Amino acid sequence: MFGRKKKVAAVPRKIPVNLGIIMDGNGRWAKKRGLPRQAGHVTGAQVFRKITKYCQKCGVQYLTVYAFSTENWRRPQEEVDAIMNLLRQYLKESLADFQQENIRTRFIGDRTALDEDIRLLMEEAERTTAHKDGMTLNIALNYGGQQEITAAARKLAEKVAAGEISPSAIDEAMLEGALYTEDQPPVDLILRPSGEYRLSNFLIWQSAYAEYVFMDVLWPDFKEADLDRAFEEYARRDRRFGGV
Question: Does 8 score more than 50 pLDDT?
């Protein structure tokens, strides 16, 4: 005779203040369906809009999404061009969708390699949402964690050369203040769908004590329920930050 099924205690809802998402698997999603890789990026962009709004609804205060890395330029030119055209479309149409949301949009990364029209659209998106005090959305575009730290070190070196600061004054707080995310708290959770298990040069400094959740679902298939599962896993973690 079977005993009564034991109840599993519900995990208290615990939402990360600062969340990073590596939106991965667009190309593989398209390949599985016999579609061109850019079709996966189109669907992935739609998922991004949906998940961003859901993050705000859940109470995430800072969200950073990995849209295009410094290494992504190595992809076939046709795919790079498709991503850039999709970005143009996104900046013209999708960000207008966020105008109804209390979301402040920022872009992090090296803008110099991007076309001028894209840079102008990025600046407009930042300017028109700068007054909002809800969730901050960081879109990492032509971004790499090593590149970010190198740029921050160069910025401080220039201040030393100009006599504004002494080398001995440089500490972790000062370097952190020279990063793209200078006014934001450390990352609490890095989420990567697609079945890959690596950081891929994403938020290296900011995620020093972040938790990681890797999920075997391609980004275009990612749902709100998948984010809920990631938050449940995050809630189970015992974050000691080097202590006991």
Answer: no
